[in-house]
What we know:
The protein is of the alpha/beta class. The protein has helices at 18-26, 48-56, 75-88, 104-117, 134-137, 146-154, 174-186, 210-214, 227-234, 239-251, 293-305, 324-331; strands at residues 2-5, 8-12, 34-36, 93-96, 120-125, 141-143, 272-274, 285-287. α4 links the parallel β4 and β5. α2 (48-56) runs parallel beside α3, α3 packs parallel to α4 (104-117) and α10 crosses α11 (293-305). It is elongated. 40% of the residues are buried.
Amino acid sequence: xxxxxxxxxxxxxxxxxxxxxxxxxxxxxxxxxxxxxxxxxxxxxxxxxxxxxxxxxxxxxxxxxxxxxxxxxxxxxxxxxxxxxxxxxxxxxxxxxxxxxxxxxxxxxxxxxxxxxxxxxxxxxxxxxxxxxxxxxxxxxxxxxxxxxxxxxxxxxxxxxxxxxxxxxxxxxxxxxxxxxxxxxxxxxxxxxxxxxxxxxxxxxxxxxxxxxxxxxxxxxxxxxxxxxxxxxxxxxxxxxxxxxxxxxxxxxxxxxxxxxxxxxxxxxxxxxxxxxxxxxxxxxxxxxxxxxxxxxxxxxxxxxxxxxxxxxxxxxxxxxxxxxxxxxxxxxxxxxxxxxxxxxxx
Length: 347
C-alpha cells in the first residue's frame, strides 16, 4: 500500500517486500531526474542524511579530521548544498528506502528540503503504518499494489526533469580564439565597465550583466581541461567551491576577479560568465565550457535559494576567512594548478 500527500508519497511495506527496495534502487537515474538516497545506518551526525543525499547526487566529501568540507557538518549548510545541486541538476523525484529508521528530526529535514526544491519525495516505510509520525500521517490519497508503485516511478515529476542547458556554440581554437580574445579585451565595455574619469562623489553607472554584455561582444573561449580534472571538480560537494574553482580553471583569472561576480553576471543558459576588475576598468566575458555549466548552475541555485538579490556576489560566502576552504580544495587538485597564494583575493 502506498500513501500519498501532495508531492510526498509514503510506500507502506509491512512485509518488507524485497520488490519495493529493489525497484527503488533500480530507479536511481540521475540523468532522468530521479535519485535514490540510502540513509547511512546508525549515523549520529546531525547532517548525515544531507550527506547521503549529496552522495546520491554524485558528490563526495573530502575525508579526514581536517577536511576542507568540515563546514558541511552544519545541518543548514549541508541541506542548502543538497538543495542547490538538486535544483541545478534537474532532479525532480527522490526516493528514500527504509525511511522508518529515520528520526523525526531527519524526516522534518527531508520535508524542509522538499519545500525548498519542489521535488517529489517518496519514502519507503517498511513497517506497520501506525508508527508514522504526525508530519507523515496527514494523507488524503492512497495507492496500493506493485503496478501502482511502478507507475509512480515512471512519472516525470512535478516539472520537466532536465535542467535548461541549451547547447553552447562551439568554442573557437587556435588563431581564431586568439583573435576573439584580443577583440574582447580591446572592445569598449558596456554599462560603465570602461575606465572613466569620475569627480569625487559622482555616482558611476552600474556594470552591465552578462546577457547585455554578450549582445555587444563575443565571450572569450574557456580553457579546456582534462576529463579527469573536470570529474574531480564535479565531485566537489559544495556548489560554491565547485563553481569558484571551475571558473578559475577555465579562465585562469585571479580569485579577486570573482569577488564581484553577481547572479546577473551568469547568463540564463549558463553559457557565459562575466568577471570584474577593480573599478570595472576591465570586465571580461568568458564562455563556460560544457563540463562547467552544471557546476556554475549549482552556484547560482545556491545563491537564489538563500533569497539574496541578483545584484549580490554569488561567490562572497567562500571569500571569507581568507578563502581557506577554497585554498584547501585547490591544494587537493594539484594538476589543475589552482594554487591560491595569500594575495589571491587581489585581482
